[in-house]
Write a structure and sequence with these properties.
Length: about 120
Amino acid sequence: MRSLFLGGIVLGWTAGGCAPALAAPPPDADPRLAPWFQGLTQPGTNKPCCSLADCRPVQYRVIDGHFQAFIGDEFPRWSNPPHSWVDVPDSHVLHRPDNPTGEGVACWFQGEVVCFIEGPGT
């Protein structure tokens, strides 16, 4: 099992079909990451992974070969976070070696992880 705690890299932008950002990005947000986040699409559907306002660095772990992400209150702008470990559907994992955050990222929308990008070295 591997667990990582990730820092906050959050920007506000919107993408078609996703909820708009509800709050301003934090002062330490890196705007250079916006194009990478905007290019994330759900495997199989090519729908946007939602706005970066819905994508957050997360703690994650691998249990029996499957990812789990902690969806909690580190970033209270998420809508209805369960404050617990959530199974990431295998079909929602993007294996992106170009992850510029160096962290795991989960996109939480309407009660599920719609996209997950693992950190390096998982």
